[in-house]
Amino acid sequence: MASLGELERAVMDLLWAGQEAATANTLRDLLAQDSEAGDGTAGHQGKDLAVTTVLTVLSRLEKKGLVERERGTRPHRYQAVSSRADHTAELMHEVLGSAPDREAVLARFIGSVSESEAATLRKLLGYN
Amino acid sequence: MFWTSYLLAVLALILAWPVPVLLSRAQWPARSPFTAMVLWQAIALAGGLSMIGAMLVYGLEPIGDNLIAGLRSLAGMVFNNEPTTALGFWHLFALSAAALLTAHLVFTLLLTYYKIERQRRRHRELLALLASPSDDGPGTVVINHESPVAYCLPGGARSVTVLSDGLMAALDPAELRAVLIHENAHLSQRHDLLLWAFAAWRQALPWFPTTRLAQTAVNSLIEMLADDVALRTESKGTLIKAIAIVASGSSQPAVSAAALKGGGAVVEGSGVSATGGADSPRTTASRVSRLLSPQPPLTKGLRVLVLAASAMLLAVPTALLIVPGLLG
Fold it and tell me: Peptidase M48 domain: which residues (chain B) (predicted)?
């Protein structure tokens, strides 16, 4: 049995790759296909994956604000709130930005560097 | 009893301003970062203790010969409705201020913890979906981004070190190892606890020079401590080169990150921080100059002296508060 974390990742990968919203049934089928065709890492229990499990995963992702449900349609169709690239940008913004409490949240190998400092370091490296 | 509150007030004052200013200008912390770290913690703790203590002792002065007797009489007034006529306006003012400051410090500490934990949880959730595991061992993941970035996200057993594609491409294996050892040192030495405490300290009293100076110094000292751990196994040249590559790469405007897969995403701003915030821009420069022209660590005698001074800083206000009660 794949962990919920792995399933969340597989579901997000499908939603990010797909163009339009998908139902839990569609997602279940896609996950099953992946496990038959692929190397088996994405959803290796594909065949016995229940739709309810996919729905559980989707509601967890919805709670985290990563997917949204189209209201009004039955069965519900789900789509990613923003693209993979946007989420990466969000993370990097948190890392590179200078929010006042960022220093306490994570420890960067190199903090913010002033332009003159960077120039000195480049010289040190023998660049330009 | 009266002189006790004056002594504590004087101690609070010198720990709030001249002492941290002098320490932040001193050169020796770079030579013995651990000793300096202990001293900063002692300054912060003793400063807070003497601030609260001075007000408490002043306020209790009319109703008790010492802190313990005073607190006992105060408890009688609060819980048994005993007459409060002995306390003048300023005594009540000082007592309320002491109580408020204590509550404020504890509350800010907890609130800061909650905010930090919430941000870390969100960050970890996204990493679980976006980053791929790396070959460099468990707890290390790689994120698809072209700027050379390395950081660690503390969280007990779920701590994770994140490297970017850009970093992996820019560094050779030895340099990468130095970066990983540096980040793991942050995690294993629990620097997150120091960062939390000093962030809260600054958040609670932002207008005190000591809190800003302490946070800047602590941010810088933990980097030096982590560098020292990396130097145990990696060469100095390797570490300097890794720092230089990452620093020069991260200063380039991150707008070029539009080249991210999928497009459409631009990381706003850049790695350059003009304001500096708590993470003083001088940190990287002082790290590199410390590696390029190393000074010998403080002699053992001096280190013992500083540690003894730190112990005294904590012992003096504690003794001023408690000893008169035990003797009387």
Answer: 121-198
